[in-house]
């Protein structure tokens, strides 16, 4: 029989973030096992698109050789409804860790939570989808008592969501949120329009970012601004605004019209140089004002305005002075006055994203015990 301190962990998604999370979970599990008053964690399921490894009797899967055990698993892959059924029948508390960016998994959150299964996830789609899905998720959680945390859905491991929630919950008045919310866009503009020196051609910087793995396989998935729009939707909702979806406010796309419908990401990168003058003009316009151009998102809470796009900043501004692929998020509030509360650091990468997920898991364990 499981003890009241047992918590079963199920993980969907074992790719980049998933792998990092599983290694952090092993460390956490070992650390907790040395303390008799801590919950005992048992990993009972790991699933990815075509493979599932799970324990029908809810005994813990060993962490040693987990990746190769999953690769060679001959267990029939479980559909999402089957996974939910399996977890709902578990004889102890369960936390589902969704490391995917799947809309299908996100759409199932209300059902998962209604069965008392807690969720931690970096999946933006659950919290930036329709406002109905947002409502259904939190209604299901409050009704069943299950917990749902999604720190890594904005800013990877940076404490963006927890900070905003604390500001709101303690009664501060958030007036404006502004920042660079994409590691990809940060990297591109820091090298295309640096505060010192000339910077490279736009098409060359995009190709470099793609070769380094900073962009999606098709860079248009970054340049369309939708990733930033999703993050702003989440923050705007947490700040109290009714935002219907990431497409319900102005989002500037940096994809040239003529390249929107080309067949592949490869072709897009090959032809992007034809449109370098467009971005060069944008850069020069900013330079005439003694400024640099950056791709930012902003939320004006009072005016109920959310927008994503290019803006010019003084070279001394914290947003202009970012390095590498760092994110920066500024919270302007009544308490903090003219000087915003600023959170800055790595906003992308498997290890830091997984850290946010692991941190959320620890919060859930504290609240379940």
Automatic annotation (TrEMBL):
This is Homoserine dehydrogenase. L-homoserine binds at residue 216. GO terms for molecular function: homoserine dehydrogenase activity; NADP binding. InterPro entries: Asp/hSer_DH_NAD-bd, Bifunc_Aspkin/hSer_DH, HDH_cat, HDH_CS, HDH_short, NAD(P)-bd_dom_sf. Its cofactor is a metal cation. Catalyzes the conversion of L-aspartate-beta-semialdehyde (L-Asa) to L-homoserine (L-Hse), the third step in the biosynthesis of amino acids that derive from aspartate (the aspartate family of amino acids), including methioinine and threonine, the latter of which is a precursor to isoleucine; production of homoserine leads to a branch-point in the pathway as it can either be O-phosphorylated for processing to threonine, or O-acylated for processing to methionine. Gene3D superfamilies: Dihydrodipicolinate Reductase, domain 2, NAD(P)-binding Rossmann-like Domain. Residues 159-362 form the Homoserine dehydrogenase catalytic domain. It holds the Pfam family NAD_binding_3. The keyword Amino-acid biosynthesis applies. Pathway: Amino-acid biosynthesis; L-threonine biosynthesis; L-threonine from L-aspartate: step 3/5; Amino-acid biosynthesis; L-methionine biosynthesis via de novo pathway; L-homoserine from L-aspartate: step 3/3. Its EC number is 1.1.1.3. The active site is at residue 231. Keywords: Amino-acid biosynthesis, Methionine biosynthesis, NADP, Oxidoreductase, Threonine biosynthesis. NADP(+) binds at residues 13-18. Residues 13-151 form the Aspartate/homoserine dehydrogenase NAD-binding domain. Belongs to the homoserine dehydrogenase family. It catalyses: L-homoserine + NADP(+) = L-aspartate 4-semialdehyde + NADPH + H(+). NADPH binds at residues 100, 124. The keyword Transcription regulation does not apply. GO terms for biological process: homoserine biosynthetic process; methionine biosynthetic process; threonine biosynthetic process.
């Amino acid at each position: 029989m499981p003890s009241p301190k047992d918590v079963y962990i199920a993980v969907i998604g074992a790719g980049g973030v998933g792998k990092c999370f599983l290694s952090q979970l092993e460390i956490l599990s070992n650390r907790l096992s040395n303390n008799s008053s801590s919950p005992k964690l048992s990993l009972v399921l790991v699933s990815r698109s075509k493979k599932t490894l799970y324990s029908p009797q809810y005994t813990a899967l060993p962490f040693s050789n987990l990746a190769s055990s999953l690769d060679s698993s001959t267990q029939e892959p479980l559909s999402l409804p089957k996974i939910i059924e399996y977890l709902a029948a578990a004889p102890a508390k369960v936390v589902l860790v969704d490391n995917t960016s799947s809309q299908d998994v996100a759409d199932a959150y209300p059902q998962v939570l209604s069965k008392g299964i807690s969720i931690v996830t970096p999946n933006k789609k659950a919290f930036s989808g329709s406002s109905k899905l947002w409502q259904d998720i939190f209604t299901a959680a409050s009704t069943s008592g299950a917990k749902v945390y999604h720190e890594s859905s904005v800013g990877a491991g940076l404490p963006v969501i927890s900070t905003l929630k604390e500001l709101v919950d303690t009664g501060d008045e958030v007036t404006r949120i502004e920042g660079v919310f994409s590691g990809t866009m940060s990297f591109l503009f820091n090298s295309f329009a640096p505060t010192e020196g000339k910077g490279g051609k736009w098409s060359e910087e995009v190709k470099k970012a793609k070769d380094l793995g900073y962009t999606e396989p098709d860079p248009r998935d970054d340049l369309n601004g939708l990733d930033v729009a999703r993050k702003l939707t989440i923050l705007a909702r947490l700040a109290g605004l009714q935002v219907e979806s990431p497409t319900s406010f102005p989002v500037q796309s940096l994809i040239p019209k003529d390249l929107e419908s080309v067949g592949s990401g490869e072709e897009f990168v090959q032809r992007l140089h034809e449109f370098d003058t467009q971005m060069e003009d944008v850069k020069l316009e900013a330079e005439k004002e003694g400024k640099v151009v950056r791709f930012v998102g902003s939320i004006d809470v009072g005016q109920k305005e959310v927008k994503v796009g290019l803006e010019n900043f003084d070279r001394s501004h914290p947003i202009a002075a970012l390095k590498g692929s760092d994110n920066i998020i500024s919270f302007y509030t009544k308490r903090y006055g003219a000087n915003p509360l600023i959170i800055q650091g790595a906003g992308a990468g498997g290890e830091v994203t997984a850290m946010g997920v692991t941190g959320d898991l620890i919060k859930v364990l504290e609240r379940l015990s």
